[in-house]
């Protein structure tokens, strides 16, 4: 096959479930004649009726011109037999997520469609290479992975297996753009881009919950302050723990049980107990109540100090200097600054309030030669919004006085301090570092380009920034340092610094 153009093509969508109907709608809205088939009799016609009601609703609200709604519907033709896919230039399958069922369907289709018809699969977890195995023309199969809800989510992962011809992937890439989507090329590897890179967002929180570092609502609050629309616990409750556990398990298994992707006992217990999240009325939280409010803590004012110095360079140290200056203004003095310091944070007389570099407070206490140490999480959104949640941990060997003062100082700097057990990398630093690391490995392995990873995470799961954007605002050494510190504490295979980062750190 040489260059292909699927503009104006007749498209057949197989599977009239949530995804199939969405794909049919998007294709029809872009002007394609669409045939819709489902193995369950009447399902395609029913789906069209439901879609008609949805489009009417949108037209009634003024969100869609009534003529456009009518034209879209008129282009969708439910078909009662697979044979009616004949003559299509593109067939997209969105049937049940099962390798042998999908493979059987694709083989049946080959006997029906023309030799140059492109076959696309919306699979979210099955290898495109494996699906192509056994086809007469395996080079025409490509992954076209949409996100739910299809009409609203912009991302399409265009997945190439070993057999997929580049011209086929390119044609689907161009077609996705014509459908108003943002396509990203990826190789057929477990989880593709989004479902792979997103693993640590859940995994790190589950690891923190396993060791009882904090309550779910505390972890959620910290990550929401970092710009994520939903915290990992409320998000897992929404997705459903059964689904999230299954995806995690499939990525784990597909990676030959690499411990980095190991599912969590915390989640398995929820699944075993039928506490599946929103849909079952209880997961981490109870529904309809949802995430409980954090207890309101009243912090005393910081005690008068003799000497205050802001240590470190860069935007977080600059923020600290500004915030400390504002906090001390009423007393008529400001902090000193020591830019060349090995750590970032505040020296308040003999006590140290340190920005996490991954090391827990007890290790920092040893390194800095004092027990009066507290460590705070990395603010990834600058300038730091007033009152935003920020995790911190105090060294277990610190005095009660410093424990209270550490929180008092953070509150005086304008954040809402949320206490955690003394864990390495706290919440945001640890999670973001692991997301960046996973993305770095994906790029190293040729799964996608850095820009593709950024676009995929922002558009596929609404991340506030892409992993490589976070990296640009942080530093390779900083990210690698946090992961190395996690490895020092936990040992094992989980916290391995990606060779992509190692090369750049050197
Ligand atoms: P669904 O269960 O809503 O719909 C599947 C439809 O396929 C059903 O109507 C079923 O009757 C039909 N079907 C099953 N076997 C068939 C066959 N052999 N021939 C024709 N029709 C058949 O499932 P959903 O959620 O729409 O998922 C479909 C595919 O999309 C799966 O591969 C899934 O992994 C993938 N996907 C799902 C996402 C989601 O959030 N639900 C997101 C991205 C991909």
Structure notes:
- The structure is a single chain.
- The protein has 506 residues and is of the alpha/beta class.
- It has 3 domains: 11-188, NAD(P)-binding Rossmann-like Domain (Rossmann fold, 3-Layer(aba) Sandwich); 195-280, N-(1-d-carboxylethyl)-l-norvaline Dehydrogenase, domain 2; 308-419, Transcription Regulator spoIIAA.
- 43% of the residues lie in helices and 13% in strands.
- The chain contains 20 helices and 15 strands.
- It has an 8-stranded mixed sheet with strand order 3-2-1-4-5-6-7-8. The protein has a 7-stranded mixed sheet with strand order 10-9-11-12-13-14-15, sandwiched between helices.
- A hairpin with an 8-residue loop joins strand 6 and strand 7.
- Helix 2 packs antiparallel against helix 3.
- The protein is elongated, with a radius of gyration of 26 Å.
- The two termini are 44 Å apart.
- 49% of the residues are buried.
- The mean pLDDT is 96.
- The site of 1,4-dihydronicotinamide adenine dinucleotide (NAI) has 23 residues, from helix 1 and helix 4.
